[in-house]
Write a structure and sequence with these properties.
mainly beta, Jelly Rolls, 2 domains, 7-stranded antiparallel β-sheet, 1 helix
Length: 304
Amino acid sequence: MTFPAPDFVTSPWLDRVIEQTAERHRPHRRTVLTLALSAAPLSLVGLGCEAGPVSPAVQPQPQRSIEKLVAVPTMDGRGARVRRVFPSQLLSYQDPFVLLDDFSVAEPAGFPEHPHRGFEAFTYMIDGGFHHKDTMGNDSVCSTGGTQRFTSGKGARHSEMPVGSAQNRGLQLWINLPRSLKKMEPEYEAVQGGDIPENGKNGVVTRTIVGKESPVKLRTAVRYLHLKMDKGARFEDEIPADNVALIYVAEGRVKLGDLELSNGEGAKPGDGELGMLALADAHAFVLLGKRHHEPIIHRGPFVD
């Protein structure tokens, strides 16, 4: 399942962006951009949790037929380079999903101790390992194919640091907690890669990261798949009503309807049938989440 680190790791353009950003903001793990979420286009205010005003309560964006998404290179934590799929100027809160990052991190970069509240931070390791420690006493390492679920609830602190000097690549997804669970006690769970079920058929190996067959349990109804597709292979699924769907391509090229997607690109299809064709060997991810139909107030590491 190993494949090359993304291009943003050594991008000269990104180096300039990072240098300019670092001069203006003190890095803080997952203190994500403070979002001025409104009916107007989203503006990116800053990386630190101190930056900008608290965003107003906002409703998720309405579902459209198919939208193409392009991950934006940025910096987070302590010198960590990520590609942020959303939130961005084009796509904000996708009920129940708040954020999706594609990260590739090596020592000494990482995400030192920082706070969270009001959501579940869920990490899937594509390659390498991540070391998690938190204020609840949890201390564990998640390796290739494994997951880490940090349910922040009423509030807790944790750190996430790379294992070894090589690039450690993964996806981090933030899932909003429904209002009834915002004040729950925080939780943590790690599941190793060997415990994630997978099956192969017609050139597609499907790993069920979250779903009925997976030991991973979230507080929101989510289906999360990692597809390893051979060139020419097809994947078909159904997007249930009242679910948001997101596709992300980590490597290779796929076709979704008339839309071609390559490394670092994604799509937001509408309800109904989902069909995907691999135009080259590819690693693609499918996300389905049942909407809470609740607005959020998102500031940095807090989702209220």
